[in-house]
Amino acid sequence: MRYVSIIIFCLAFSQSSFGTIYYVSLSGNNANDGSSSRPWRTIQYAATKVPANQGHTIKIAAGTFVENQIHVPQGVHVLGEGRNVTIIKSNSSFYYYPASPGFTNDKFLIRFYSGSSVAGNQSIKNLTIDGDGKKLHGGIFIHNRNNVTVENVRIQYVNFSGLWFSSSNNSTAKNIVLKDCAWGSSSWCSAALQFAHSTNLDISGFDIDEGRGYGIKNLGHDQNQPLTNVKLHHGKVSVHQVGLWNGGSAPNIAIEFWASGFSGTEIYNTYVDNHISIINPNNTQSGTPLKIYNNVFDILGLRTKGSGYCMELSSSSVEVRNNWFNGGYTGIVNWSAKVFTNWNIHHNVFYGISGGPNPTAVVTSYKGGLQNLNLYNNTVEMTQTGQAVHFLEFDNSSRGTNINVKNNLIINGAQAANRVINLRHGGSVSGLNVTNNFFQNITQGTAPGNYSGNISGTSNIVRSGNKPQGFYNHTAGGNLIDKGAFVGYESKPDIGACGDNNVIGTAASSSPPAPTPSPTPVAVSSVTISPATVSVGINGKATLTKAITPSNATNQGVTWTSGNPNIPKVDANGIVTGVAVGSTT
C-alpha cells in the first residue's frame, strides 16, 4: 500500500478563544480581507462577510464610523476598542424619527435578529452608539437570539429606544450607559431600555439618564404572559420629573413592569429618582414572589424635588424589603380596582411622605383592596405637612383583609393628626392585628381590630449622621431593642427597620462603578502536536491533537492547515485525510 507521510503540522493561531478576529478600521478598505494588516472599512460590510456560528469576532478600531444598518450574524461577536473610543453613527439615509414611531423595530442601527429562536452565543462590547440628536430610531435590537451579552456599551440621543431585548432568553446587559434614548406622548411612552418575552434576563451596572420617556419597561410583552426570572440590579435610573402621559397628570416612570405574574423576577440595589410601576392586570398568582429590595427611591433628590411618588403596586405575591423611600406624596399605592394578595413589606425606611393634593398614607389601597398584607419592622418618619399622612389607609370602598402591622417604628413630626390606620370614603378592614409597634406622637386610629403590645413615647434612635443607615439606628439599651414580636425573621426582634444589623437601601446615588477591566491576557509559551509524525494511506484518516502551554493561556484557538492539501488535507478538527503519495508539513 502506498502511504502519505505527514512530517509535522504547524498551527496558525487566531486571536480569539473560539475563532478568527476580523478587523474594521477607518484606514481600511472593503476590498481587503479583514486581517489585522488589511482591515475592512465598514462594520456593515464586515457583518456580511464573517461566517456565522464559528465564534468569530468583528474587531472595530478607535474612531467614529458612519454606517448603514448592521445585521450581525448568529454567533458572531462585535468588539470595540472602548466605550467613547469606538463610536458608531448612522448614515443620514437611515435616519428615522417620525412624530409617532410606533413599535418599529426594523430601524435599529444594530440588529441581532433571527426568524425563530436560536442560540446566539455572542456579544457586543466596548463601544458607543450616537443617534445624532435623536435622528436615529434605535440603538441595538435583539430578537430570537438567546445567550447574548451587551457589555460596556453607551447609547445616546436616539429617538425611540437604546436597547431592546425581544424573545431573548439567558441574555445579559452589564455596565451600560443610556442617555436620552426614549420617546413619549400623552398616550404612551417607550423606554431607554426595553425587553419582552425574555426569561432569565440579567441587567446590571446600568446608568440611565432619560429626559423624555421612561427608563426601563417591558414593551411588547403580552400582558397575559408572565415576566420570569428577570433581574435588574446595581444600577441607576434618573428620568424627567414630569410625565407625558395624560397631559402630564402623573409623574414619570423610572421602571415599569406590566405582565401576568413575575415569578423569580427581582429589582435590587438600584437607585431611582421617580416611581416604579408594577402592574399585573390579570391578578395572576406567581409561583415565586416578585422581590424588590435594597433600592433607593430618591423622590426628594435634585431632579424630582418631591414631585412624584415611590411605587405603584398592583400585583399579588410581592416582597418589598430593606428599601429607602425618601419623600414622595405616597410610598406604596394600589390604584387598581382589584383585590391583591400576599404583600410582605418589611424592614424599609420611609421618610418625608408629603401627601400631595389629598390626604394619603405611606401604604395606600386607593381602590380594590389588599388581602394578607404584612407590614413588619418598617421605620417611618412623617415630617411637617399641612395635611394628614397616615401609615396605612383604605380609601374609596377599598377593603383590607387579614392585615398584620407589627414591629414598626412610626414617628409623627407633622402638625396634622396622622393615624396609624385610616379608613376613608367607605374603606373597610377585617382581621386587623396591630401589635408590638412603637408610636411616637401618632394616634392608632379607629379601625376595628386587635391592638396590643404597642409602645408610645420618644424612641431611642441615634438621630445623627446620614439617613437612613446610622440616623435611625437604635441607641444601646434603648426602648426599641428586643421589643418586637417574632414574625419569622429575628428570634428576638427589635422594633423598626434598622435594628439587628439590618442594612437599608444599599444602592448608591452616584453612577455605577466603572466596568471591570478585562483580565491581562496569558501568553502561549509552547504548542505540542501529538503524534509529531504520522503516515496514512490514500483516503485513510488520522487525528492530531494539540496541547497548549500554559493550560490557562488566553488563546486556546488554533487553525489547522496543510502545506500541500493535494497530498494530505486537514479539517478544522485536526483530522488528516490522505489524498496522494508524498509528504508535507
List keywords for this structure.
1 helix, elongated, mainly beta, three-stranded mixed beta sheet, 1% helix, 585 residues
The total count of strands amounts to 48
Structural category: mainly beta
Unreliable parts? 6-17, 510-520
Strand percentage lies at 35-45%
Distance between the termini: 21 Å
Radius of gyration: 30 Å
- Counting H and I runs of at least 4 residues, what is the number of helices? 1
What's the rounded overall pLDDT mean? 90
Backbone shape: elongated
Q: Give the proportion of residues in helices.
A: under 10%
Give the spatial strand order of the biggest sheet.
Answer: 10-12-15-18-16-13
Main sheet makeup: 6 strands, parallel, barrel
Q: Would you summarize the structure shown here?
A:
This protein has 585 residues and is mainly beta. It contains one helix and 48 strands.
Report on this model:
This protein is an all-beta fold. 1% of the residues lie in helices and 42% in strands. It contains one helix and 48 strands. The strands form five sheets. The chain has a six-stranded parallel barrel with strand order 10-12-15-18-16-13.
